[in-house]
Amino acid sequence: MIPRGLLYTEWKKNQWLFLLSSIFLIAANPFMVYNNYVTYQGCLNDPAPQDCEFVVSYTNGSLLSFNWVVSVIIAVFLLGLERTKGTMDALLSMPYSRSQIFQTKFWLGGAVIVVPQAIGYGAASLLISLLKPSHTYDFDHFSIGMIVISFMAYALLMASGALTGHIFAQLLTAFTVTILPFLLIGLPAANLEVVFDFSIGNEFSFISSYIESRLFIFVTPIGYVFNDWIRERHLILLIPAVMSVVFYLIGYVSFLKHPNERNGRFFLWRKLERPVQLLVIAFAVMGFGVFGYGVTDTMFGYLAGIIIGAVIGFFISYFTVYRKTKHM
Question: Is residue 206 pLDDT above 50, yes or no?
Fold first, then answer.
């Protein structure tokens, strides 16, 4: 149950952000349809109007492709900014449970992301029925898909915000998760190819088939930043939908269980610091190793890259994970 008083408080704190976000999300879809219509009308004034055709095509994306940016901003304001400013303590001291606070923040922000896009989708559908374009391509799939994808991005940022103690940590953690399948699969595979001088795809055909199936892209959240998913089957949207549920659960549990007194630290849960530091060093070692080999095409370059990566990884992890950020 979301308390009305808490809901009102959260709304007033970010009122202008919510209003501006809603206006943009409502207007983006109808604007694209109308812009195509205006372009068509302008074409009719050309010397060869017979070549003009009023088409609404979302196959290659549109302005809506950036709706996920709004999700990121809202999530940062709801959690990351509050932790960075040190106002989360005051919020937690109010007579509300942590569960109520997280649920209020999460679903208020989620509603601001989903409802305006749904309204914009309806308005664009009405505009299409009135203007009657000769062809409409991927309108429904893209419009619904962007609602799902922007909500997934929002859930991811809320989860990372519940795990971390300031804005930079929230954004960096979220970005790392968006490319995590590549870091866990791609980097080790590339290093194996360098060390043992063989092709992973040739030696292990199931890996090659997995990559060629493009599933590797779509289980990687950053894959939805690009527009390749539009040309896939509609069921592809089940993947970001499931991710949204997973991110929501991670965020909810983290907000309930992790100590708020570590605000300003990279992670609110101290036990995450050492494993994450080791992962950062490992990724840096593998990444710089492959880069060194790619530049020099020698094992010396590979080993030099490993050493440089270890040093850089250590300092990056130390100054990000272990350093406390002061409140704004």
Answer: no
